[in-house]
Amino acid sequence: MPDTREFKWKQCLVVRADIRMSCGKKCAQTAHAAIGAYEKADKVARKAWLDEGQKKVVLKVQSERELYELKTIAERAGIPTSIIQDAGMTEIPPGTVTALGLGPARAEDLDRITGDLSLL
């Protein structure tokens, strides 16, 4: 049975698709991005998002530049952000920028910024 709740809050996690990473590595990078952005959110946004069920959407971009452009747009809109750089201990070189966490924030605000991106 599909869930028909309307979520007013969410988090968007954006991963670079131009880097070869295993599925597990992508999962780890998005988890880092989720925690990093959550920690930068204010108490009101964190509580509302937690109470509502912690909706997360994982999206992709094709370049590091796109990731930074999204980060800048989100910051200008007052949305918490977190850029993730890998430590380089497993699959990719140290310092590689892999993911971006946005929010939690109002879904409508995130949709204006990420609405054209494809799901991972």
Automatic annotation (TrEMBL):
Domain of life: Archaea
An annotated GO cellular component: cytosol
Reactions catalysed, as given in the entry: an N-acyl-L-alpha-aminoacyl-tRNA + H2O = an N-acyl-L-amino acid + a tRNA + H(+)
Keywords: Hydrolase
Top EC class of this enzyme: hydrolase
Listed EC numbers: 3.1.1.29
GO molecular function terms noted in the UniProt entry: peptidyl-tRNA hydrolase activity
PANTHER family in the cross-refs: PEPTIDYL-TRNA HYDROLASE 2 (PTHR12649), PEPTIDYL-TRNA HYDROLASE 2, MITOCHONDRIAL (PTHR12649:SF11)
Function description: The natural substrate for this enzyme may be peptidyl-tRNAs which drop off the ribosome during protein synthesis.
Family that this chain belongs to: Belongs to the PTH2 family.
NCBIfam families in the record: arch_pth2, PRK04322.1
Protein name: Peptidyl-tRNA hydrolase
Species in which this protein is naturally found: Methanoculleus bourgensis (strain ATCC 43281 / DSM 3045 / OCM 15 / MS2) (Methanogenium bourgense)
